[in-house]
Design brief:
With 67 residues, the protein is an alpha/beta fold. 37% of the residues lie in helices and 40% in strands. The chain has helices at residues 16-30, 48-57; strands spanning 4-14, 36-46, 59-63. Helix 1 packs parallel to helix 2. The protein starts with a strand and ends with a strand.
């Protein structure tokens, strides 16, 4: 059995700097867990800079308009 820890944040608008701040704050927490940590951000609007940052840092973005 694989255990996974899901850490998420929701924002109305997500920009690249938001992804950086989220990742930097969560990466410290992930060292505590032995399980795999899954990073997730939800927003109503995701800027292209956020998409680039999220891809490079392994953060999954979910927006209300993305399927």
């Amino acid at each position: 059995m694989v255990r996974v820890v899901i850490v998420g944040e929701d924002r109305s608008r997500i920009y690249g700097d938001d992804v950086k701040r989220f990742f930097d704050s969560v990466i410290r927490l992930s060292k505590i867990f032995k399980e795999q940590v899954y990073l997730l951000m939800f927003g109503f609007y995701v800027h292209s800079s956020a998409e680039r940052e999220a891809e490079s840092r392994g953060v999954r973005l979910i927006a209300s308009y993305i399927r």
